[in-house]
Specification:
Blueprint: E1 2-8, H1 15-27, E2 32-37, H2 52-63, E3 69-71, H3 74-77, H4 84-93, E4 100-106, H5 107-110, H6 119-125, E5 128-131, H7 139-151, E6 156-158, E7 163-165, E8 172-175, H8 184-192, H9 203-212
Parallel strand pairs: 1-2, 1-4, 2-3, 4-5, 5-8
Antiparallel strand pairs: 6-7, 7-8
Helix pairs in contact: 2-9, 4-6
Length: about 220
């Protein structure tokens, strides 16, 4: 069984998260997607951050109609900062022998991964699937230059594998899907302005935000 680990603040979760992860799930033959909301992200401020309970409930509403999506609250149960490597190590150590874990990450985040705790461990422990962002050109060149500059000069792109490969580290895949120009910060800003976000978030999430009076 192949499982994709998709973490973030999801403040709030939006259609872009769902569309990109669904394309990755189908394109890489993943059996399940673990959506992993962070409690206290070390690289983001807490401004405009709603409670973990609110974010968790919005995620549960958003993925309720998506088969194979699992909401994983491991970071919400852990005290202190939500370091991704701690989550990865925990899930790998508790995985059965027939499970293959891969990490799903946006290209903006991966280009900062050298600032993360124990960042080299990611490339030793599990493959990465990097999701491209709208408005950015030359994703392969940007990612390749970054990997060679910050991780290892020996990362090379393999056409056959459709990934950057290394003889001792895990492969890094690039996913160019139907990019949706949506961000959580844009959703929050539109709500503050009193504008509708019905086209940006699932209906159940929109109704939840309105009911709870979030982001206003």
């Amino acid at each position: 069984m192949r499982i994709g680990l998709f973490g973030g603040t999801f403040n709030p979760i939006h259609r872009g998260h769902l569309q990109c992860s669904l394309e990755v799930k189908n394109g890489f033959s993943l059996d399940e997607i673990y959506i992993i909301p962070s409690a206290i992200p070390p690289h983001k401020g807490m401004e405009d951050m709603v409670s973990a309970k609110n974010r968790l409930e919005m995620i549960e509403l958003a993925v309720s109609e998506y088969p194979g999506y699992i909401v994983c609250d491991v970071e919400l149960k852990r005290t202190g900062l939500s370091y991704t490597i701690d989550t990865v190590n925990h899930l790998i150590s508790n995985a059965s022998g027939n499970l293959e874990l891969v990490m799903i990450i946006g290209i903006d985040a991966v280009l900062e991964i050298h600032t993360w705790k124990s960042y080299m461990s990611f490339f030793k422990r599990l493959p990465l699937i990097v999701m491209a962002r709208p408005g950015r050109k030359g994703h392969r060149e940007i990612l390749g230059d970054y990997l060679r500059a910050q991780i290892s000069v020996e990362y090379k792109f393999s056409v056959g594998d459709k990934a950057f490969v290394h003889h001792t580290k895990k492969p890094v895949y690039l996913h160019n899907g139907s990019l949706m120009d949506i961000s959580s910060s844009r959703v929050r800003e539109m709500i503050k302005q009193g504008r509708s976000v019905k086209n940006l978030v699932p209906l159940a999430v929109d109704e939840y935000i309105e009911k709870k009076g979030l982001y206003k």
